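Before going further, learn to read the protein records used in this course. A complete example follows; check for yourself that the lines match position by position.
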Amino acid sequence: MGANDTERLREALLDLCSESGYKKLKLKHLLDTVPGLRERATRGEVLFGTVDTFLIWRLAGGRVHVTDVSNASRTLLFNIQTLQWDDELLGFFEIPRAMLPEIRPSSDPRGYGELRLPRGAAGIPLTGDLGDQQAATVGQVCFSPGEAKNTYGTGNFMLLNTGEDLVRSANGLLTTVCYQFAGKEDGPAKPVYALEGSIAVTGSAVQWLRDQLGIISGAAEVESLARQVDDNGGMYFVPAFSGLFAPYWRSDARGAIVGLSRFNTNAHLARATLESICYQSRDVIDAMAADSGVRLEVLKVDGGVTANELCMQLQADILGVPVSRPVVAETTALGAAYAAGLAVGFWAHTDELRENWNESQRWKPEWSDAKRAEGHAGWRKAVSRTLDWVEID
């Protein structure tokens, strides 16, 4: 990094470590407040890791302390260029290197250790390790630059493969390591990077209709209610209950329902809720296109909301590209299995994984370009009404 980049990083970290953000840094908080913990950590008597590190430690009988590049990239302590713990960040946060796990590829023929269970067979190698959303990206076989997946849960998580190019976002996205597979005999392959956009409230907006408003008794009912009308009746719902995440990052925003008239009904609100899921996803995809210069050709989707066929049709209409749902819905578990299988030679190459992937359903855009542009303009106008709602120190 240049001097200006280092100074900007330092300012950002200082802001994060302000009183309002300090307690979010859990590891530093523990080291600073638990008597004697820092000294023990410096001696290597206390270890730290993400969930994968803990699981591998337990599965391997407490013999291995490792993580992979995708999980390490979530710690604020990892240099995604060198693929090592970053000395400057460790010094800034005062984190002892001795407590951190060894960093390994996401798919490693050497294995991270051997499975050891009380009544299980010993000697089974653990060879695949991926972060949640990165694993889903692998499970959706998004192996080429420009391929993207979107996971629909209580929130949405979208990743766009940018290949071996580390693309710095200028549009509110996160640059992350997507995966690093085993390479040839001389070492692992180069890492593959991704742009990621996280949306706070999508499926949980449907839960709000059920739990707070009581207009549906179950999440599945939102589709039949929304199908009672042909459009949103001019109504937009921006579920910024705790602010807006990517690509806005506005903690001052709050939820709003706008464009109401006496004509609107519960059905319009249900449809506007589904549209809010899709418009928020479009905002992230537009940011990805601006950062990467790549226009999305198809969006692969997974997660609970994809069972809502109307929502997926709206997603295709609002994006203007096809939306594809796979046969195997548990893409995160599948991606981890793919990584392990590649390591031991069960699959020789990612091309075999592409052949293994099968589509369950595809939705094609039905809206005209004019209708799509008009709808998105209304959405952006609705988003603007949510901003500056609360004062943020």
In short: Residues 306 and 312 are 6 Å apart (CA to CA). The chain has a mean pLDDT of 91. The first strand starts at residue 66 and ends at 68.
